[in-house]
Design brief:
By secondary structure, the chain is an alpha+beta fold. The chain is built from 3 helices and 5 strands; from the N terminus they run ααβββββα. It has a domain of 82 residues.
């Protein structure tokens, strides 16, 4: 067995460059406001916040032992492009937009006005 010298490499030089993205305080206030309204209606019961490479996720659950029913995703932008937002259900994207408020409109109930027939 020969004795060779080891080469020490800086871990940061070989690690994939990740861009961690977070929800801002105003965004969290909007998300938690929606969450509390849905809890009061009995539709949602739990939530989780997750950070992945280039994504921040706010997932909501009907039951904590099941998978999320929706995930609200913040997708990192670049220097010339702002962050984008999306609502997903599993791998399916249901709604997307440039602002969180625009994406959260997906959850507001749509009112259907029925014209009363004269008579």
């Amino acid at each position: 067995m020969s004795r060779e010298s080891a080469t020490v490499l800086a871990f940061g030089n070989h690690r994939r460059r990740q861009r961690t993205i977070y929800f801002t305080r105003p965004e969290l206030n909007q998300l938690l406001g929606l969450y509390s309204r849905q809890v009061m209606r009995g539709e949602w019961r739990d939530y989780a916040i997750d950070h992945r490479d280039g994504l921040a996720l706010f997932s909501v659950f009907r039951h904590s032992r099941e998978g999320p029913i929706y995930s609200i995703v913040k997708i990192a932008g670049s220097a010339d492009r702002p962050a984008e937002f999306a609502v997903r259900r599993g791998p399916q994207q249901l709604h997307a937009g440039r602002s969180l408020a625009e994406v959260l409109d997906f959850f507001h109930p749509r009112l259907i006005w029925l014209a009363a027939e004269p008579g």
